[in-house]
Specification:
By secondary structure, the chain is of the alpha+beta class. The chain contains 2 helices and 3 strands; from the N terminus they run αββαβ. The longest helix is centred in the middle third of the chain and has 13 residues.
Length: 77
């Protein structure tokens, strides 16, 4: 997806969401997002739209009990 990781980071930073975005070996994009539930929902709405040249086919949303704390949102390679 062209520019999707940068799109995801830009909107995460605007909403003060922490975590990461990365490409998977299958060619999907994986995002771990931490923040207030209303901000996460807004973020998911942005992700559903995606950048203009991206095609978002499906979003799988899971709630995790992860004890890790992220200081910022990063793009992982």
């Amino acid at each position: 997806m062209v520019g999707f990781r940068w799109f995801a980071k830009q909107h995460a930073d605007q909403l003060k969401i922490t975590g990461y975005v990365r490409n998977t070996s299958r060619g999907d994009v994986e995002i771990l997002a931490c923040g207030k539930s209303e901000d996460i929902q807004t973020y998911i709405d942005y992700l559903k739209q995606g950048p203009s040249r991206a095609r978002v086919e499906k979003i799988i949303n899971e709630t995790l009990d992860d004890e890790k704390r992220y200081q910022q949102f990063s793009i992982r390679m």
